[in-house]
Amino acid sequence: MKLDRQTQTQIVRFLESVRFYQIIAHESRWDKHTPYDADAPETPIPYTITPADLRYYFPGGDGAAMLRYLSGIGLIREHPVITTPEGGVRIPVEVTDPHVKGKLHYIRKKRLPSGRTDRHLIGSLLAATLPTLPAQDGPYWLMFDANRDRPDLFFKIDRFGKRVHTPVTTLPGAVRRELLISGYATLEIDVTQSQPSILALLLRDAVGDNPFTTLVESRYDVYEHFADKLGCNSREAGKAAFMKALFGRSNDTMAAAFNAPALIRWMEHIKTRPLRLPFREQPSPKTFRREDGTVFRSYHPNLACLLQRTESAMLRKHVWDVLAHANIPLLTIHDSVVLPRQYIDAGLAAMRSLPLPGLRIAVKGDDTD
Predict the structure, then answer these.
(1) Does 341 score more than 70 pLDDT?
(2) Distance CA 283, CA 353 (A)
(3) Rounded distance between C-alpha atoms, residue 115 and residue 293, angstroms
(4) Which secondary-structure segment (H or E) carries 312?
(5) Can you tell me the distance from the alpha carbon of 162 to that of 151, in angstroms, rounded to the nearest whole number?
(6) Dihedrals phi, psi of 342, to nearest 5 degrees
(7) Does residue 77 register a pLDDT over 80?
(8) Higher pLDDT among residues 364 and 330, named by residue
(9) 298-328, pLDDT tens digit by residue?
(10) pLDDT (0 to 100) of residue 304
């Protein structure tokens, strides 16, 4: 169908409005047998459009009607609807009109990290399979399965906490236990209460002896402590209170749980000014508007940033690098690793080498779990 320039522009804007993480591929010009090349030409990736997107990008109009119109005139082809775990739906859309397809800006191949450990992690990810996949957990993994030739879409190190994100990261724990790496059954080894342990380490270095670090070193359950001190009715409520103390703007919760002025002053210092880091490494502050309309910045995300970056650096040095050097396949989920069961001894030895106060390690998916 011949479309005038204005109509083509409107359609291109509509299709390009969909956010990155909602893109899914059903076909690609990229030859899967060609060696990976970060400088390769653009690869067409059809878009996945959701009803929520249509409302978001067309608040004054009917985006769903436009989608039906484009499908009706043969400009796009809709694939079977995908149901998300939250109960929403996604509509994979393939652009078929050559005039519009030629104007769309598709996702370019991005350079992947080139370090030895990162290359090892990417290789392990590409060797990971799931023999069965519940429908509610499927869309993202199926997207990964269909595009294993594009690891740049599925391996990301975030700027905030330097954490590695892959399709494995988003899988529920019960599903992760079904993972295979090169056909081998796996298990997961994680650090129990890693965030309290890392905070205890930072506090010990910053203020010396303090009751929080002492509590963690005693291996007493931090969440139970918060539940007891704050009058919470469950350990989960205590955990929520602890996370609020870490990641919220106020330090009142921590002050209520520990009579430690030096501890509170340190947290206040971290949360109220930029960290001493190069500008490009600074976490972005949050912006708030006061009742009088004035805007102010809050640096309370700094503490979460410090904890996550410390966790990532520590695991990389003591666990990922060590296992990668031994050529042991592994997948990462922030404070845990998944590896083939025959390497459990090497995995445990690496995790137990982490220099954390009160270190506790748990194994998930073994015969006794």
Answers:
(1) yes
(2) 29
(3) 47
(4) helix 301-315
(5) 18
(6) -70, -10
(7) no
(8) 330
(9) 899 999 999 999 999 999 999 999 999 999 9
(10) 92
CB 19 within 8 A of CB 107: no
CB atoms within 10 A of CB 131: 8
Our separate counts of H helices and E strands in the chain read 16, 14
Say how far apart CA 361 and CA 369 lie, in whole Å. 13
Neighbours of 281 (CB within 10 A): 11
Q: How many CB atoms lie within 10 A of CB 269?
A: 12
Domain-wise residue ranges, the chain = 5-101, 194-304
Residue 250 CB coordination number (10 Å): 12
Structure tokens at 105: 């800006």
Residue 276 is encoded by which pair of tokens? 């001493």
- CA gap 85, 305 in Å, rounded: 28
Q: Identify the H or E element spanning 288.
A: strand 286-289
Cα dist from 255 to 91, 163, 172, 206, 261, whole Å: 49, 29, 34, 17, 8
Written as six digits, the tokens of 110 are: 């991005």
- Please give the structure tokens belonging to residue 112: 């992947």
Cα-only R_g, the chain: 24
- Report pTM: 0.74
One-letter amino acid for residue 207 of the chain: V
> Which tokens belong to 367?
């015969």
Q: Residues near 176 by Cβ (< 8 Å), separated by ≥ 6? A: 168, 188, 333, 338, 365
- % pLDDT > 70, the chain: 77
pLDDT value at residue 45: 45
Taking residue 115's Cβ as centre, other Cβ atoms within 10 Å add up to: 12
Spatial distance between the Cα atoms of 362 and 192, rounded to a whole number of angstroms: 6
Share of the chain above pLDDT 90, in %: 45
Which of 72, 43, 54, 42 lies closest to 14, judged by CA? 54
- For residues 120 and 279, what is the distance between their CA atoms, to the nearest angstrom? 30
Mean pLDDT rounded to a whole number for the chain: 81
